[in-house]
Every structure is written in structure tokens, then in C-alpha cells.
Specification:
This protein is of the alpha/beta class. The protein has a 6-stranded mixed β-sheet, sandwiched between helices. The two termini are 30 Å apart. β3, α3 and β4 form a beta-alpha-beta unit.
């Protein structure tokens, strides 16, 4: 704040950790690492296990929201039955972000590794990640971002390059994929 000369009254400070409108969980993911013959294979096994856990979580989200309909902190406009359906204008009602540490399809935790698995499971997923400059790859990320913001996609798998300054009021869950060496999947759900 000081370096940018921003007045104190214009800064939103930490509001505390008691947030009844949020549900947060850390999901332990298990896999048989004895099958791995190298550190790379170990990362692939953990990444695949996390992909399965992500798909399981995506499948369970509608019922999680449906159970909070009468919750005083739960939104009254979230219906578990129509969570993944499109509106009359062919737009999705809700958005979900899945953050990955990097973009690689060679890593078990890359955007390019997970987005196809999510799409193959029937979700309308796009990919967003930073690139080295103006090229087709950057244009594809921009296109996916615009489609997500317009509710044409309901899941966006992204690196941390996405999200700064994005104002999208219907994001209902954010799933954070941790690095390969941990066996956790973090998932704060924004109700």
C-alpha cells in the first residue's frame, strides 16, 4: 500500500476466517506409489488420483448446494438439480474454477492434463494459462476466458495466471490442485 501510495481507507483488509458462506475441505487422495518406477511416474500416479478425486467432487457439487438451500448463508438461487444445466439463453447458471500449478500435459497436475479429463467426463471445460507471447496458444486461453465469463463454459481449468481482477458473480466452487508431492486436493466452495 505504501509503495503504491494508496490511502488506508481504500484498502480492504483481512476480514477474518469465520466465513459462514464458504465451505472448505481438504480431500486426501490415495494411490499405490509402490507401482512407480521413477519420480515422474509417482507424479503421474498422484496426478491421476487427483483427477479422479476432482471428477468425484464435480459430481457431488450439485447435491452439496442442494443441501444448503435452506441454509441462511446459502444462496436462494442455487438449485442442485439444475447446477450443470444451461439456461433458456444457452448459458450456464454456475461456474467452477479448477486451479493447477502449471500448464503441462506431461505433468499429472497440469492444466493440459486435467482439462481433457474433465471434458471427457461430460463437463464443458476450457483451459486458461499464461503463454510466452502472442500466438495461437495465447488466443485459445483468451477465447476460453471470454467463453467462461459469458457462461458458455461451466468449468475453467487454469493456472494462477487467471483470476486477477475477474468479476464473475456465479462462481460456485474453486478447486485448487496442489503440487505432486502432496496428497491433498483443496476445495473451497463459494456458496
Amino acid at each position: 500500500r505504501r509503495e503504491l501510495d494508496i490511502p488506508a481507507e481504500d484498502v480492504v483488509s483481512h476480514l477474518g476466517t469465520r466465513r459462514p458462506e464458504l465451505t472448505y475441505q481438504v480431500i486426501r487422495v490415495t494411490t499405490d506409489l509402490a507401482k512407480a518406477r521413477s519420480a515422474w511416474e509417482e507424479g503421474e500416479l498422484i496426478g491421476s488420483a487427483k483427477a479422479r478425486a476432482t471428477l468425484d467432487l464435480l459430481k457431488k457439487l450439485p447435491s452439496a448446494f442442494g443441501s444448503r438451500v435452506k441454509d441462511p448463508f446459502g444462496p436462494d438461487h442455487v438449485d442442485g438439480k439444475t447446477f450443470y444445466t444451461r439456461s433458456d439463453k444457452d448459458r450456464f447458471h454456475h461456474g467452477i474454477l479448477v486451479f493447477c500449478p502449471h500448464k503441462s500435459n506431461k505433468s499429472g497436475l497440469g492444466v493440459q492434463f486435467h482439462a481433457p479429463k474433465i471434458s471427457e467426463a461430460g463437463y464443458n471445460a476450457g483451459m486458461f494459462y499464461g503463454s510466452g507471447g502472442p500466438n495461437d496458444e495465447e488466443n485459445q486461453s483468451e477465447l476460453a476466458q471470454q467463453r467462461f465469463l459469458k457462461n458458455e463454459l461451466n468449468v475453467l481449468v487454469a493456472t494462477k495466471a487467471f483470476g486477477m481482477g475477474i468479476d464473475k458473480p456465479n462462481i460456485r466452487a474453486t478447486i485448487h490442485r496442489s503440487e505432486e508431492h502432496t496428497s491433498e486436493l483443496q476445495s473451497p466452495m463459494y456458496l
